[in-house]
Specification:
Two copies of one chain form a homodimer. Chain A is of the alpha+beta class. The first copy, chain A, is built from eight helices and 14 strands. Strand 5 of chain A pairs antiparallel with strand 6 of chain B.
Chain lengths: 300, 300
């Protein structure tokens, strides 16, 4: 027992035989580590994650921990605090047997910022999207109520300015401080903000007004608590708008990928060709096929 | 010993007497909790923070932990993993005695999204900035080499298009994946992007080109790995540009506050009055004096 704390190796601890071959990702901020390795001769991915500190546990933690002073300066001091083991459990997620695809999914990927001109869109990005012809069947299923119909929070069925509003899968709907909904337009030929012109202002205004109203009514969150934006590049090429709680750091809410709906409306009002002509910057992962196309075109 | 693990309350554990009166902030994502309470009859703030999982510790953690199956589904399974206490230390930071100001600093604050028109800037924001006359002495000290001169990474001394580039205090300069530098302009009368016109394009181009060159030379990071942006509202009203590593989720990099330098340049090229006339959205904390001004003006 190397700890000297009276701990014993757990019985039936199948992870005790796990041999790490690579650290796929090490997220210091989130206290999570993603490991690739072997478990009983099989490929496996193991994710170790420290758990949040609950308010309910701190009294016992303070009462019964070992404390070691690290630094003291005026009114500030820092300590190492070693709580009893049962108050400090981690979450382990195991994928076994893991395929190459699982390993790649968790691997940290370098990203590169690409600056796409209007011409780059027509000569590089649009042909790539058309060539890949990503399936949008799941989007059409939602719009046609063939799937997820019970999840719809609001719908305006108008074919031109209408949309369906429903919770994003990343949101567990248990609290509004991380609210995340998606508005998917009924129009089927709009791939992304690149294709928006002044003709789409009624659609955008409608999503802005009715989306915010529906969220206020259903969740009690006013417009001043919302971040409403597009992604460019989007993760699928059917126009949709993200509604996230301002209080949460939404994934994909960074300035390098997100475009506020209110800015898009203003830009199109001032110049209907704004999104056809302007250079747009966005990050692409090293394994993204579109990055290869930009590299082949000598644009990176 | 409630844990049954043979732990004993640490001797000289001054935190054992801490009585929590309020949870100031509970950051589940970062596994950190901020508490306000009493320590020996004195006001105190205690921050408990789980520590990152190091690759070096996982072998011992796997070999000698208790494991409890939580869920199994096909190739996926999740467990509770209880490592020996010594492998699972927290960091505790104590501020004692703590003033009202300390408590407020750590308290989570509601934020509200404000949409500021060009007129709002002139009638609400600018008078507020002038009334408060925030001190910029520390900025002038840097520009005049009276402070932090040894931290300067690059300088263009030109009074019109020149700037000083130096690391932000949030960056420990130990690795480039969280690189964070600030370019502070030598011009003294530019408060923020609100005051930029086409006349400032040479300044912005110069910062963009020479800032990126200096970072490539010193840190080996090319422009495609950088996020270069302004904040609006900024945290101080002397024009400055943030250079952060694309790989890091920079605090304040969200679309609701950040404006890419490349977009600012394009916008000013197309319309020199862009930043004087457009509505700009930004979040304000509930305790921000500027929010009160917008509320008094009936703009929220």
């Amino acid at each position: 027992d190397p700890s000297g704390n009276g701990e014993e190796c757990g019985e039936e601890n199948i992870l005790s035989g796990f041999k790490t071959t690579a650290v796929l990702k090490d997220s210091a901020r989130e206290k999570t580590i993603f490991l690739h390795g072997k478990l009983d001769e099989q490929e496996a991915v193991v994710i170790l994650q420290k758990t949040p500190i609950t308010a309910a546990s701190v009294a016992e933690m303070f009462a019964c921990s070992k404390l070691k002073l690290e630094m003291r300066n005026d009114i500030y001091s820092t300590y190492h605090l070693q709580p009893p083991a049962h108050l400090n459990v981690l979450k382990a997620t195991v994928v076994c047997p893991a395929t190459e695809k699982h390993v790649k999914k968790y691997q940290v990927q370098e990203s590169f910022l690409v600056e796409e001109t209007g011409e780059d869109y027509l000569s590089i990005t649009l042909p790539y999207i058309q060539e890949k012809s990503f399936s949008l069947q799941w989007v059409f299923n939602i719009l046609e109520k063939k799937a997820e119909a019970d999840r719809i929070v609001y719908e305006d069925p108008d074919p031109d300015v209408g949309f369906v509003l429903l919770p994003d899968f990343k949101w567990d709907q248990k609290q509004t401080h991380d609210l995340y909904l998606i508005a998917i337009v009924h129009q089927r030929d709009l791939k992304s903000i690149r294709e928006l012109t002044a003709a789409h202002l009624p659609l955008l205004q409608n999503i802005c007004t009715k989306g915010k109203e529906a969220i206020l009514e259903r969740y009690g969150l006013p417009a001043s608590k919302l971040r409403v934006y597009f992604h460019y590049q989007p993760s699928y090429y059917h126009l949709h708008v993200h509604f996230t709680a301002l209080a949460s750091e939404a994934p994909g809410g960074g300035v390098e990928r997100a475009h506020l709906l209110s800015d898009v409306v203003q830009n199109l009002r001032a110049d209907g060709g704004f999104y056809r002509q302007r250079s747009l910057s966005f990050p692409l992962r090293a394994d993204d096929g579109l990055l290869a196309k930009f590299q082949q075109a000598g644009r990176l």
